[in-house]
Amino acid sequence: MKMRRRTQIILSLLIQLLTVPSHLHARLDRSQDNSLTVPNEFRVGVILDLGSWVGKTIHSCITMAISDFYAVNSHHKTMIALHTRDSKGEPFQALSAALDLLENGKVQALIGLEMSIEAKFLALLGDKANVPILSFSTSPSSSSTEYPYLVQITQDESAQFEGIASIVDSFKWRDVTIIYEDTDEGREILPYLVESFQDKNIQIACRSAISPSATDNQILEELHKQMSIQTTVFVVHMSPSLASRLFLIVKRFGMMSEGYAWIITDKTMNLFRSLDWKVIESLQGALGIKSYIPTSTELHNFTRRWKNEVYKDPTIEVKHLNVFGIWAYDAIWALAKAFERVGADTPAAMDDQRTGLNSVYLANISVSEIGRKLLNELLKIRFKGLSGEFQILNGKLASNALEILNLIGKGKRRVGFWSSTNGITKETYPSGNRKYGSSSNSLETIIWPGRSATIPKGWMMRMSGKKLRIGVPTNSEFKELVSVDRNPETNETTVSGYCIDAFNAAMGALPFAVTYEFIPFVGDNGKNLGSYNDLTYQVYLQKYDGVVGDITIMANRYQYVDFTIPFTDVGVGLIARKPMDNKNMWIFLKPLDGKLWLATAACFILTGFVVWVIEHPINEEFQGSLAQQIGTVCWFSFSALVFAHRERLLSNLSKFVVIIWVFLLLILTSSYTATLSSLLTVQQIQESKRDYIGYHSDFFGGQRFIPMANKVNFKDDRLKPYTSPEEYVDALSKGSKNGGVDAIADEIPYIKVFLARSSRKVHLWCLRYQGQLQN
Q1: pLDDT category, 19, cuts 50, 70, 90?
Q2: CA nearest 191: which of 139, 268, 119?
Q3: 633 vs 567: which has the higher pLDDT
């Protein structure tokens, strides 16, 4: 009895002791300020595949982001509390986890969701519950108007596709083959990739879908199909795991060799460091596109701290930080800033705002009171994070520049950047500070597959039995080179000429049979469709597989098509009238003009007089009668030309004068001899520069000949255009003085044909000039 009473007393005392501190604590709370107030807690759900390297990296970065943010902002009145769920890489598992977090966890935001199908499921759920969904999905189809509460914290892939199209266009490739992953996400993205190429007038030669479960033999069959088409430019958009299998087979199949071009999207390149070394070896020479993360001290310090944390976790095999972890870090900072802006007085627990939330009656989901405000504040956030400038535009992370990488050796080498504002550049520039770049010259030197520095052509001739379409010009004035004749009765077309014979001989010498047909460049009405430039451009447009004819290799044409090695002489020549005045008996006077002749005569006389003045007092040979002295002076000066003077000089001063005179004579006679020889050989060409020069009206596109002529001092008003060889003969026969010309400028092959067919009455000859033909 006493024992029981003692126990009651002890319990009563304990209760009193426990209640006293609580009363004291309540009084202290009422008497003190809010400096000790516990921050208002906001719950954030995290749904990741924690079994994957990417998921583990993102989760570790999210945890570090919360720790770093509140260490810097300890005065904030709000705090994020994480509620993590493992989706195990299953979309329905992610949906189930989201329902649990919304119903039981009472979360105000969700982050994670690496797959687009997960993001779309939860985007619908987020719209009903007014809960922002921060997704790592890269699907460009998720618009902010369709899913207003879905926020993509990765760069928009449509911007990446635009960059890839610009790169392909910069190398003048007009066809590409797209190889993509045969999944819902891959099929969903494909139209956006195709549209980007079509905007640049780039054709899709083939679309190859490869399933993630495809065997090596099935992948090999797909690659074998690509060998049957001419295109050698491939764009690969697939996960790193499937891309690894693909490129090992590509290397083994011989398609990672010279002449091929492979472009890999950021779906693989963002996780490049997770690839096996054998895969990296198979990628030698490929180009990769990767999201650009600018280097900074903050990023360096964070990477070092992250590695220290990761090395403590033995479950994480890959120890390299990826871009998704960096984006996740910045996203948490943005979300924490948004929560703080929403305010500490906003109730964090949402159980009184939600009723009836379950997986069956989704229509009963109540609307979050802070969801709209939180989303609006999140969209206003803008700061400089680890990934650079962080800002959400149209429900997606604002696109920064893309890195263009060349995969060489054991890693990758940056060769340039692409951005929507500056285009292709070697360095990054602030927006609008540089002219938009669209040329491959804006990139560093690229080592292509096969360790080649030569840019791939983008196509390769395949011997698949296809009949080649060979275009032939019909407007050539020289039928000996190429001629197209049409029989009006049988409607058959006959193509002949030296160029055609050379082409037939070359094709016949191939070790395999190639079928081809000649197609005249005419319309349905039989009329010519355009100039030689238009004809060569048809090859670029793939209307023809090639063109044969008297086509000059010019710079403007070389930008679009390739040429064979010339099989005729290359260069520009002049057809000139043979000089008819070289039989003039006074031609020996022409090397020197009148003034120079007078000056030379004066020097003769002056030299003889000076020598006479010096030698006359002391030398008997310079004495005598006046007539004898005049004869001696004249004879001495002229005999010095051939060193035949007989008078002996006694004075050293006179000898010095004669030495100077002999040296002057040597220069004068050498110049005279060279000039006279030139007059007897190329005189007419020199005269032609002062007279009229003719040229073909289609020569280099007509007016393009005039700047070339000006470079060699032919004046515009001295140039006359002609349209046929017959007009050449008539103009040359007349000459400049009779309304014709003294020379005709044309290409060497045309000149040779013209000389072969010209009448013997016209005296012609050819001067050849070889040089680069500019457009």
Answers
A1: very low
A2: 139
A3: 567
Cα separation, 447 vs 761, in Å, equals 60
The gap between the terminal CA atoms of the chain, to the nearest Å, is 121
Alpha-carbon distances of 687 from 314, 585, 705, 741, rounded to whole Å: 91, 19, 20, 11
The residue whose two tokens read 């398609």 is 255
The DSSP secondary-structure symbol of 641 reads T
SS3 at position 607? helix
Alpha-carbon distance of 506 to 529, in angstroms, equals 27
What distance in Å separates the CA atoms of residue 412 and residue 256, rounded to the nearest whole number? Answer: 16
Which residue in 424, 429, 378, 315 sits closest to 57, CA to CA? 315
> Using one digit for the tens of pLDDT, what is the confidence trace for 260-271?
999 999 889 988
- Paired with 78 in beta bridges are 40
C-alpha distances out from residue 271 to 122, 139, 628, 695, Å: 25, 17, 109, 62
- Give the tokens for residue 759: 């009448």
Q: HEC string of 390-455?
A: EEEECCEECCCCEEEEEEECCEEEEEEEEECCCEEECCCCCCCCCCCECCHHHCCCCCECCCECCC
DSSP H or E segment with residue 234:
strand 233-237
Q: How far apart are CA 109 and CA 171, in angstroms?
A: 45
* Distance between CA atoms of residues 148 and 355, nearest Å: 23
DSSP β-ladder status, 764-769 and 572-577: antiparallel
Kindly list the distances between the CA atom of residue 9 and the CA atoms of 3, 14, 21, 22, 454, in Å, as whole numbers in the listed order. 10, 9, 19, 21, 98
Contacts of 193 (CB under 8 A, 6+ apart): 161, 164, 178, 180, 235, 237
* 333 token code pair: 């900072």
Instruction: Tell me the three-class secondary structure of 661-716, residue by residue.
Output: HHHHHHHHHHHHHHHHHHHHHCHHHHHHCCCCEEEECCCCCCCCHHHHHHHCCCCH
116-129 helix and 91-100 helix, angle to the nearest 10 degrees: 20
Which runs of consecutive H residues, i.e. helices, occur in 116-215? Answer: 116-129, 157-170, 184-199
CA 83 to chain centre: 47
Q: Is residue 572 within 8 Å of residue 745, measured between CB atoms? A: yes
pTM above the 0.90 mark? no
Following DSSP, what letter does each residue of 298-349 receive, concatenated? HHHHHHHHHHHHHTT-TT-------HHHHHHHHHHHHHHHHHHHH-TTS---
- Collect all residues with Cβ–Cβ distance below 8 Å to 372 and sequence separation of at least 6: 130
Helix and strand numbers, DSSP H then E, in the chain: 23, 26
pLDDT interval class at 9 (50, 70, 90): very low
d(CA 563, CA 545): 13
Q: How far apart are CA 690 and CA 23, in angstroms?
A: 118
Phi, psi of 497 (to 5 degrees): 120, 170
Contact 743, 577 (CB under 8 A): yes
Q: Which domains does the chain have, with CATH numbers?
A: 40-155+297-397 (3.40.50.2300), 157-293+400-442 (3.40.50.2300), 468-568 (3.40.190.10), 570-775 (3.40.190.10)
In the three-class reduction of DSSP (H, G, I as helix; E, B as strand; rest coil), residue 520 is classed as strand
Pick from 115, 569, 92, 190: nearest CA to 100: 92
Q: Quote the CA–CA distance of 41 and 346 in Å, as a whole number.
A: 10
Residue 151 DSSP class: E
Q: In this predicted model, what pLDDT tens digit does every residue of 158-185 receive, in sequence order? A: 888 999 999 999 998 989 999 999 988 8
Which stretch of DSSP H or E encloses residue 745?
strand 743-747
User: Please, is 406 exposed, middle or buried when counting C-beta atoms within 10 Å of its C-beta (0-12, 13-18, 19+)?
Assistant: buried
